[in-house]
Every structure is written in C-alpha cells, then in structure tokens.
Amino acid sequence: MKVAQQYAAYHRSGRCFCGRLTRAVLFMAQLLYIASQSALGVDKEPLQFPPAGFNLVLEETFESADLNRELWETKLKVFGREGDRYHNSSYLNYLVDDDVLLGGGSLRLRAARSTIRGDDPPGTYQYTAGMVSSHDRFAFTYGYIEIRARFPGGKGAWPCFWLMPQSHQWPPEFDIAEYYGAKKLMHLGLCHGDFPEVNWASGGNLDVDFEGAWNTFGLLWLPGKATWIQNGSVKHESEGAQVPSVPMYVILSNGVSSRFGPSGAPTPETVFPNFFEIDYLRVWSFDQGRVEANPQIGPSFFEPLKK
Hints:
The protein is mainly beta. It has three helices and 18 strands. It has one domain: Jelly Rolls, CATH 2.60.120.
C-alpha cells in the first residue's frame, strides 16, 4: 500500500519518489493493490444518495449552448502546475477552450491529437484537451456531489472528476472518479498530509462498464468520513483525521497521459478525438435541521465565491 501511495503522489506532482524501484514496478504495485481492493470490494446493496435531509444547492445540466462562465473557468489553478494551460510532465496535453463542447444536454470534454504552440507555459504540444474548474466561483465543505458520465478509453486516456482546495494549497485532493483508460480501472483517492510528505488513501474498481454506458459517480463527504459511490453502491471509504475539512472546488477534465502518467502514453491505436461526457453535476448540502439534530455531523458550508 505504501508503494501505491508513493506512486500516486509521484504521478500527481510530477516528482519521483521511486528510489531503486522502477516506475513500471510502482505502477504494477498500485494496480495490484487497487485490483485487490476491487476484488474484495466494499460493495453493498444500493443505497439512497444523497441521504434524506440533504438540500440540492447546485445543479448544472449543461443545457445551454454556451458554458456558464459564472460557474466555470477553463484554466488551471492547481498547486504545482507549470502553467494555466498545462499541469506537469505526467500529461502530454495543452488545455484549450475549443475542446470544451456543449450539445445535446451534455458537456463533452475532448482530447485530440493536434499539434499546438502554447504560451502558458511556452512550448509545442502534440495533444490538446478540455477542462472546466469552479475555482474562485463555487466551493463547498461537506455534503454529497454527483455526476452522470461516460468515459473515454484506451492507452493514454486520463479523464477525471476531482476536488481541490479553494485555498489553492495541496493536499488535500479528492479523486472521485479518475479513469486510467489503459487498464479500464477507476481510481478512487484521497490525497492528504503536508507537502512534500503526502499520502494517498486509494481504492479502485474494474467492475463497471465505464466507457460504453452512462453511470453515476458520487462522493458523500462528512466530517471524518468520505464515501465513494457508483450507481448507488459504495466502492471505497476513508475514515479519520485525513478527511478534509476545508472548502473545495470542482474540476472536470479530460487528459492525455505521458509515459510517466498512470495511463501510459498513447499508441497509434488510441482513438482521437475522444470525449469525457458529463450529463449533469449536482451538489447537496446538509439540511440545517438535520445538523442541529445531529451535532456530530458538524456544520455544512456552501458558498458561491465572490471574485
């Protein structure tokens, strides 16, 4: 598990913690750990999500022909980025607005094999991709968040539904649904600790058709406990002081992994363009009466942020 956590920290930060172990060994160790988690499973009977007593505070159905700029930004603000349009060496893609598409009532984040000269940071990139982020516009602490989505596949495909702190520090980070297309594996993770000493509480699963079917992906986030849900079934849980207690914002991104990333570099067989499709995003907060009746839950925070 420690090896898996070290590799996960490496692939997010662009820095290597591998020592004498090769990247391939680290990656296989992570896959074996996550596969064992999936095999053992925390699957339970489908439950009701969100639980009773939660209030819907945000619903984005992507029905408009134009992106809602009051909610979404198309540039990165994450800690450790090399530019507003490029994350780090784990990625091959440059972020462009042209890859953020709306139509048919869904958001379609495209990844394309397309050479571009970028300026943030300067360089030539062989791939482009789309991303939306709610930083400085919407953040929340505790509640339930869910999307309905369909993921692209193939080696190099790296779409993700994740949360990052509004403070723009790192960690924490929630990976609610981070797909490694090369392995058809969904990573479910929580990064915690103090940089550069970070740790990952990771799980994952292989038992859902992530590419061909529409599925729901959610996170129930309570004080001291986080639960990852797919199609109403619990897939992973993390409990303890590592669970964040700070406002976090939403990122929906398509991406192209480099050879350093968790999905490996694309091959000629990888389909481009490919699309990360999102039907809706919904966020629920605690009902105030529920909080007063259950003080152990703690206060809920919801705020559309002021620029």
